[in-house]
Every structure is written in C-alpha cells, then in structure tokens.
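Hello,

Following up on my earlier ticket. Below are the two sequence lines again, exactly as submitted.
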Amino acid sequence: MIRYVFDTGAVMAYTHGVEAIGQILYDAAEDRHLACIPSTCLLEAYSLTEGKEHDLLRLLRMLPVVVIDHPLMNVRAADELENIGVLTRLSGRLGAGHAAIVAMASYATVVTSRIEQMQKALTDNWPITEV
Amino acid sequence: MKITISVPDDVGAILKQLPAGQVSAYITEALKRRQVTDLVQEALHAAGHRHYDHDPEGARARVAAARVPDAIVQEARQRLMQQMPGVPAPEWDRLWNAA
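Thanks for your patience. The regenerated structure is below:
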C-alpha cells in the first residue's frame, strides 16, 4: 500500500539526510507500507546530483519499502501520458505532473520541496509534507 | 531448516501462547520485519540520517494521517477531468482502476 509519493525534492532530501524523509522511510519499514517514487522524479534527481549522491539514489531504489512508478502507456487501455502532460502544464514541471497522477491514483500524501507546484496540479488542500 | 535458539523467559512466554505449529511462522515474520527495518536504517545511515528508534505505534499513527480523504481525491480528479473534456468516462475508470 502506497502512503507517500516522493517528488524530486524529497528524493534529493534523502541524499541530504533530511529528518522528515528519514522518518517516513523508517515508518514505512515499521508499518509495512510503501513510498512511491515516480520515475521522472528519479530522473530529475539524477540530473541535479552526482557522484556519491548517485550511489545513494541507487541504495534508495533498492529498498523494499520503495516502489518506482512508471507511467501507464497502453494507448488502447490505461494510459497516463496525456494526464501527466496536462498536470505538467498546470504545475510547470514534469516530475510534479507525474507525482500528482500517482498521488491521485493512490490516495497518498506528497512529499516535496515545491508545494506551490503540487497544489497547482492537485488541489490547495491536498496533504503535502514539505522538505 | 531446523534451528534451536534460546530466548528470554518473557519472549518464551509469548511463544508458548501461540497455537501449535505457529511458532516458526511467528518468528519468521518477526525476523523478516527486522530485516526490512535494518536495511532501511543502513540506507538512512549511509545518507547521514540519525538512528530511528523502534516505534510501531507512532509509525501507525503517522501513516494513518497520510491517507488522503476521498473527498479531496475526488476534487483533484474532477479538476483534472475538466481539463480534458474529450476523454470519455470509461477511460477514466480504466485509469483509476489500473492504478
């Protein structure tokens, strides 16, 4: 069960030792639920980091409490590409658009460093944890 | 694999209360949980995070609060659907059900 969606800033916050992210990941292990990282957020995080931080991202991806979301892209069935595109236009960033569709699908709190972008893609009252 | 272990009296009392044949499953489950928390602690330590103490009740309470209320989810979904008026309802159903 996905309880949190990590936007790009949350992924980077893990590599920087930010307390809120540590608590979320440890709670996931204790309570047996998942934190979801949209693949586009991972790509953005890789583009903004290097060296040792890339090693840490690899470690994060391998954790049993982390699941990576890839956009659904079956044009004849469930397809998220158009939705993510629209949400990207609303939020102003691809990772935020992808994180928003995952959050909507899984009823999950978003963890981000860009609250205003997520609110534009979701709603003003969507539960968001700022890091 | 069969292994003999020694446990403190209070832990032994818990195991003795379990139904017959359930002790191995109980211990296996506990060890798997511990393995996951250890892996997460290691990953956190590698990134410079502090050590987190065992607190399953606190975790449960924090996580329960993280589930987004249905009304808010429906509001966000409606907002998105209004941005895409050409998409028929069955496609939305397929999308939300696939998630």
